[in-house]
Structure formats: C-alpha cells, structure tokens
Amino acid sequence: MTIPIYQKIMELIRDEIRNQAPNTPILSERELEKKYNASRMTVRKAIDLLVEEGVLYRVQNIGTFVADSKLHKKTDSHALNSFDLECDYKIIYFDVKDENREVAQKLEISTHDQFVRIVRLNLQNGQPESLDQIYIVRLMIDDSVMNNILNILEFSAKIETGSVNQVFVPMIVPVKFANLLNVKINTPIICVQSKINTKNGRIYAYIESYLNPEAKSIEITI
Amino acid sequence: MTIPIYQKIMELIRDEIRNQAPNTPILSERELEKKYNASRMTVRKAIDLLVEEGVLYRVQNIGTFVADSKLHKKTDSHALNSFDLECDYKIIYFDVKDENREVAQKLEISTHDQFVRIVRLNLQNGQPESLDQIYIVRLMIDDSVMNNILNILEFSAKIETGSVNQVFVPMIVPVKFANLLNVKINTPIICVQSKINTKNGRIYAYIESYLNPEAKSIEITI
DNA sequence: AAGTGGTCTAGACCACAGC
DNA sequence: CTGTGGTCTAGACCACTTA
Q1: Predicted pLDDT of residue B77
Q2: pLDDT score for A163
Q3: What's the CATH architecture for B76-213?
Q4: CA neighbor of B31 nearest in space, from B20, B21, B16
C-alpha cells in the first residue's frame, strides 16, 4: 500500500491551488522539485496528469497556470456509468435469451449464443431519469454470479473495459417506455447506444439508454 | 525542424504493429530501448501516448499488447470540429449584433457587447449534414480579419482552445431549418450546444449545431 | 543573462507473473 | 529466478521569453 510520489504531489498541488485564482502561475517545476524533495521528472508527471485533467495548463517558456474550474475535463455521458451501483434503480425485467438476430449482431455473437437481458429504471430523487436495456454476453459472465441479478451487475462493474463506444440517436420516446419514464407521448428524446468492450476487443455488453430529457442531460467537457 | 525522438518512436511502433494481430505483444520496453537506441523513459513516453490513444494496452508484469483497432479512442462529436475548414459548407447568413440577452448569457458577455453571428450549412457529398448557428464574441476577433467572413473562420480555427463544453439536446427539427437540412417536418433531431473556451476560461464562441440524423450521427469512443 | 517548460539519458529499485 | 511494467533519480541540453 505505497502511493506513488507523483500521486502525492498531485494532491499537494491540488491543495495549493484550491484557493488560487485562475490564470495565476503555480511554482516552477524546479521550485517544486526542491519543495517536495523529488526529481523534476516526478514533478512533471504530477503536473502532466493535472494538465490532462484540465486543472492546470502550461505555456511554453513562461510557466504553468491554474485553469478555470469550468475547464476541468469530464465526461458525464450517461451510459458510461451504466454499471455504477451508487445510483438508485429499479429492475423492471430480467431474463436469459438467445435467437435474437438484432441483439446477436450488436453483441457480435452467434444467434445461438445466449445473452442476459436486464431492463432497469434509473431514479434520481425518486424521479425516473433514464431506462436502460442491458444486454450482456452470457459466456462472459462467471457462473458463480448468475444466481443473482445484483451479483451480475456488481460483476459487470468490475469488468476492465478497454473502451466504450457510444452512438446518440434522436427519437420519439417509445410508447411502452413513456409511462415508466414519466414523459409525455411524442416527446423527443435521446437514446444512447453503448458498446462496452473488454481490452481484447470483445464486446461485453450492449446498452440502450433512453433518457428522460427533463431529468437527465448529456454534457461533455473535452 | 527537429521532431522529438518519442514522436519518431511512436511512428516506428505504429509501423511495426500495422500488420500485427490484436492482442499480440509488442517488444518489451527494454528491447525497444536497445532497438531504437533511446533511453527507457523515452520509449515509455512513446508507448504512454499510444496507450492513451487506445492503440496499445499494457498488462502489468506481462507486457504491452496491440489493441483492437475498433478500440481506438476518438471523439467524433460534431461541433468539436466546427471550425474545421476541410469540410464543404455554405454560409447562409452573417451579421454583427448586440442586445440579445440569451446569446449574451451563453457567451458570458454584457448585453451591450457585440457578437458575430454566422449561420452555416455543412454539406457532405452535397447532402446537408448539419446546420450551425455560430456566435463569436466580437472583442475576441482580431480587427484585421473582420473584413471577411472566411478570415474569421480561419482565425477561429487557430484559436487555442482550453476545452469544449457540449450539451446534447433532443428536439423536433425547427420548422425554419427543416427545408435547409432536407429533413421532414416533425423529425426528432439532436441539437449540440457547444461552448468553445480559451485557456484562460473565457468563452470564445457558442455554437448550436442542428444535426440531420440521416446524414450525421454522433459517435464517441472513450 | 536568467528562468521557463520540453526533451533526453543511464542508471536504479520495486512488485508481481510465470517458469 | 528471470522478465515485465511502474516508479524514481540527478543530472543534462534545447528553444524560447523576458528583463
């Protein structure tokens, strides 16, 4: 349980700039090197990561500066956190199926391979925020967790994802979901189609998230 | 004209793995160090960047592997490339205005400050792909380019952005844009609202992009 | 001339996998 | 035990800006 020095320095810098105005310089790399008694490469690594986060920005030959907090880079795209267990949700439906050409194609499996389907309503302060249709490749789920749907979700949350691919599709809310989402018929909504890939390039899950535009907006800062 | 060594190594690695199957290992860092006659830190920097791009992935204590090309991380979110001059487009409208509360609020300027408004239709193979309403803070545009709208766009393309904030809004296509976008009345579409920030946290431009769902889908791989 | 960030080197030690 | 990626050091030179 040894935290790398560069991570400690990241936290120290965060502390230092917490009350510092945007666009004011932080100490130079050579000053921080002495202050934290670390090598310059280690200090740079800490700064590099904070720059990537959008917390700091560099100007060549001049210095490193505190960024405006509204520039912090975050991706609050809905389905990325689909397996987030912190949220309130209600399971609407759950089964194991096969022989569905469309789903098999999305999951890149044969039509004869099984998949798990979970329909889940996500709540925020009791209000329906989105409805997920989750399809998971049966073969990629450990047998030991198949007995319980909560175990499957917990298992899924731990999957090391290689990347997530999302397509945003505009549509009129499907009639069968309008009531559940507490949205009027004919409301335009966004459906996020996500493919969760493992590191070796196989698809673990395919998710369709129907978002209630009143409760959930997709926002990205890059 | 001196390209850093780590960038050269990135290209060399790209070449090496071009015909290599996904999930097969590349040479170890110490082997690459000798092969390219560079220090390990330099080799690591090259690999680090390729991992960030999603071209490679590491497994601790084991090795570094070629990623599936579908895992390459890209953000093809429309308005990010709004000032991309490579695309075909047609200027629909252009003026300089002020006294618009709503726009002033988005641009975080006083209602008395001027802004430039450009309405632009983006084409792909002659088909309308999206319609942008671009609002730029007048004060942030160099006087020397104000004489020509193309100069303004070129100037904008060169702005060093700190970050881009995007909100995705589902809606029915505005009637006034339906014809231009070659989309039927009542079609559900996505409008991307983008704020282009400079490094010092000021807003340079605000863009509303109305996307033709037939011609343009928003896709992100993270 | 002094100071900055950007790049680079040639070592080093660590924890962990697999044999 | 060997090899891997992860971390770290104490220097160095460069191009550039500002004074």
Answers
A1: 66
A2: 85
A3: 3-Layer(aba) Sandwich (3.40)
A4: B16
